[in-house]
């Protein structure tokens, strides 16, 4: 029943300060010239898709539709330089921090910063850490960090894909360094491959990285089936590239038949999820419904209950359709709080059965 489990949701208005506006002047650079040439070649006016409205839409919907057992938390400390340096190089961090208060393009794939972006990014990483600390300390059954800018494309030395700092990796590294966790399972269900997270833990046998995503050449074009890690970490990266039409049934099969056995083998102390909502059928790719999100959430929750005393923390990644983003987060939080999960069926079958029941009397003998 909804409310049987406590879910702490971490949120901070500081993260609304990240707002690159492309019409304003940016620091001149080779990257800036390249991005401007790309934007000028478009036949429509481009605006930065990873905008503050993503978080405000989620927060407004959750305020309007409260969930028993879900509690908001604020005031988490921003991530420190030391915490960030566990997954990012100091040269990259020094460069990022030098851009505080400025506007600059960081990558030709249109990743940028605005004057308050660095504060927003360190707050995002700090809230991801706070979410992990909350579940490890037993303050809640699970936690969800509603953060931006997102993180899973950020590499050790590079910002990419609207991501500045790799929030989920920073939280995982903190759990291992300071919270006594020896084995961390990171699940990434964003429509895009988490190339940065994969890169960070590529040769690490103590982090199992499991990623479902739309297959290449969909951005960023990485995450091939054969990419399984290297060195001591060989076999601890699991990529499941999917067609853009995959849907609920395929996702449930992936999670039950690949993730569950992998988790049983790995036996994690903690589970983290890079929770993107662009797999929804109204967003980027992969054709999930809200019931699909509920189903995979419950599978992950069951794994956490089996192996790590329910210790599960989710960190927001992508999702750009504001309706499916906000309602998708709501569906996941309801599930985490103890809500029921409907049976997953092939797309459209439930609607056909409802229609058949509605129309059946028209084809029956009225005298019967």
Task: Provide keyphrases for this structure.
single chain, two-stranded antiparallel ribbon, 368 residues, 8-stranded parallel beta sheet, 11 helices, 13% strand, alpha/beta
Topology:
Elements: E1 7-10, H1 30-40, H2 53-64, E2 70-73, H3 81-84, H4 90-98, E3 104-107, E4 111-113, H5 117-136, E5 142-145, H6 167-178, E6 184-188, H7 195-200, E7 207-214, E8 237-242, H8 247-266, E9 270-275, H9 290-307, E10 312-316, H10 322-336, H11 349-359
Parallel strand pairs: 1-2, 1-5, 5-10, 6-7, 6-9, 7-8, 9-10
Antiparallel strand pairs: 3-4
Helix pairs in contact: 2-10, 5-6, 8-9, 9-10
**Overall mean pLDDT:** 95
Tell the overall outline: globular
Number of helices: 11
* Strand line-up of the largest beta sheet: 2-1-5-10-9-6-7-8
- Proportion of strand residues: 5-15%
Radius of gyration: 21 Å
Helix content: 25-40%
SSE succession: EHHEHHEEHEHEHEEHEHEHH
Uncertain runs are none
Q: How would you characterize the largest beta sheet?
A: 8 strands, parallel
* Count of extended strands: 10
- In angstroms, what separates the terminal alpha carbons? 41 Å
Looking at how many chains there are and whether they match, the oligomeric state comes to single chain
Q: Kindly name the structural category.
A: alpha/beta
